[in-house]
Amino acid sequence: MNVCMIGAGYVGLTTAAVLAKLGHTVHCIDENEQKIAALQRGDIPIYEPGLAELLTDYKSRLFFHHNEQHIKEADVIFICVGTPPDLKGKPDVSYVHRAMDTLIPYIGDHQTLVMKSTVPIGTNERIYKRLKNEGKHVRIVSNPEFLREGSAIYDSLHPDRIVIGLRDDDDRSLSVMQTLYAGIHAPYVVTSLNGAEMIKYAANAFLATKISFINEMARLCDAYDVDVTDVAKGIGLDERIGRHFLQAGIGYGGSCFPKDVTALIQMAYEQMVRPYMLEATKTINDTQIYWYIQKMKRTLGALAGKRIAVLGIAFKPNTDDIRESPALSFIKKLHALGADVIAHDPKVVVPNDVNVKQAKTIHEALQKADALIVATDWDAYKQLNWEEVKGMMNGNVVIDGRNSLPREAIMNAGLNYIGVGRG
Ligand SMILES: NC(=O)c1ccc[n+]([C@@H]2O[C@H](COP(=O)([O-])OP(=O)(O)OC[C@H]3O[C@@H](n4cnc5c(N)ncnc54)[C@H](O)[C@@H]3O)[C@@H](O)[C@H]2O)c1
Ligand SMILES: O=c1ccn([C@@H]2O[C@H](COP(=O)(O)OP(=O)(O)O[C@H]3O[C@H](CO)[C@@H](O)[C@H](O)[C@H]3O)[C@@H](O)[C@H]2O)c(=O)[nH]1
C-alpha cells in the first residue's frame, strides 16, 4: 500500500520504518524542515534502538518531505503529530488541526485517515464531521499507539493488541487496516472512535496507577521496614495483578504518562466526574522526589554545597528523550537546594535552560562526589564496579532512584545504599 505519515517523531518514524519493513511505501511529511533535511541525508534525529538499521534497510520504500506532495496518491494517511499538554494540562490538539488544514485540500473519498496521535475523547468524531462539512467523505480510523520508547521497534512489530476505532457505518476500514498490518500477529479490538480514544487513555492511566501504587507501598515499606521488591514479587506473581510496572522509584515520566493522566483528569472534570484515583496517581507521582529528598537530608544533612553526582537524565533507559523526565526534575530540585550537581547520561545532552554541569564520563561525574544518585536505570550504571566507585567518591551515599542496583555489592563495597522501600 501507499502510506503517507504526517509527523515524523518517535511514533511517526517508528511506524513508517515498520510499515516499510512490512512491504509498504511510506512518504513521511513533517513541518520541521531541519528534521526532514536530516532524514533525507540519512541522519536519524532521535535515539531509538534498531530504528537506524530499519530506516537504512528499507530506504528504497521510505521518503521524507516537508510539503504536501504525495498526499493525493496515498491509500492510507496517518496522523502522528504531537499532542503536548497546554498550560492547564489539557492536550493541545492544535497540531492535529493544523495537520488537517494541510490535508483537506488533497484528501479524497478513496482514502483512509488513521489517527495514531493520542487525542481527547471525541476528537476523531469532530474531525469526521469537519471533513463531511467540507464535502469529503473520508473514512476515519482511531488506531492508538502503545509502543514504549526504548523498545519501540519491537513493540510495533509485536503489539499485545491492535485497537481499531471505527464509525458504525464504516464497513471497509477494518479490512484496510488488516491489509496494512498483515504480517503482525496480534488480536484486534474493534470498537467505536470514542472507545479507541478511551482505551488509549485508560491503558496509560492504569499503568501509571500501578507505578504510583507500588510507590505508595514503597513509602509504607520504608515505615515498616519491609523490602518492596519482595512485595512486588509477592503480589506480581498473582496473574490477576501481573508483575510488570511494579518497580518503585522516583516516579514515572516521559511524554505520555504525565500528560495522559492529567488529560484524563481534565476530561473527567469537564463531565463533572471526580477522578479520585487518577488524582491520587498524579499526587503520588508529583511528590515522590520529595520522599527521596527527605531521605537524603536525613543521611547527608543540608544539601547545600554537597557535590551530588546524578547518573541518568533521560526519562527511562535506551532513549534520549527528556520530556517530563523525573531525573531532570530531581536535578533541578537538588540545584534549587544549593547542591553542586554534576549529571551524566550516555545519550542525553543537558538542555541549555538547565543550569547543571554535565560530565562526559561516569568517572568524571563520580570524582569527589558526596552522594551518587542513579536516576535512570541504564545498564551501564547497574554494572558499575562498586569498589572503584567508592574509591572515586568523597562520601559514601548511593541513592538508587530506580530500585535496580545490586544492594549487596554496594554495601559490601562499604557504601551506604538508599533505595525506596528497601527495608
Ligand atoms: N512517544 C511515544 O512513546 C508515544 C507512544 C504512543 C503514543 N504517542 C502519541 O503519539 C503522538 C506523537 O508523539 P511523538 O512522541 O511521536 O511526538 P514527537 O513530538 O516526537 O513528533 C511529532 C512530530 O510531528 C511534527 N508535526 C507537528 N505538527 C505537524 C503538522 N501540522 N504537520 C506535519 N508535522 C507536524 C513535529 O515536527 C514532530 O516531528 C502524541 O499524541 C503522543 O501522545 C507517543
Ligand atoms: O515499573 C515501572 C515501569 C516504568 N516506570 C517509569 O514509567 C515511565 C514510563 O515508562 P514506559 O511505560 O516504559 O515508557 P513510555 O515510552 O513512556 O511508554 C508508555 O507510554 C507510551 C505513550 O503513550 C505508551 O504507548 C506505552 O504503552 C507506555 O508504556 C518511565 O519514567 C519509567 O521509568 C516506573 O517507574 N516503574
UniProtKB/TrEMBL annotation:
Residues where substrate binds: 146-149, 200, 245-249, 253, 316
Pathway noted in the entry: Nucleotide-sugar biosynthesis; UDP-alpha-D-glucuronate biosynthesis; UDP-alpha-D-glucuronate from UDP-alpha-D-glucose: step 1/1
NCBIfam families named in the record: NDP-sugDHase
Keywords tagged on the record: NAD, Oxidoreductase
PANTHER family according to UniProt: UDP-GLUCOSE 6-DEHYDROGENASE TUAD
GO function term, MF aspect, one: UDP-glucose 6-dehydrogenase activity
Catalytic activity: UDP-alpha-D-glucose + 2 NAD(+) + H2O = UDP-alpha-D-glucuronate + 2 NADH + 3 H(+)
Residues of the active site: 256 (nucleophile)
This protein's record includes keyword Kinase: no
The protein's name: UDP-glucose 6-dehydrogenase
SMART domains documented for this protein: UDPG_MGDP_dh_C
EC number: 1.1.1.22
Residues bound to NAD(+): 30, 35, 83, 118, 149, 259, 323
Cited Pfam families: UDPG_MGDP_dh, UDPG_MGDP_dh_C, UDPG_MGDP_dh_N
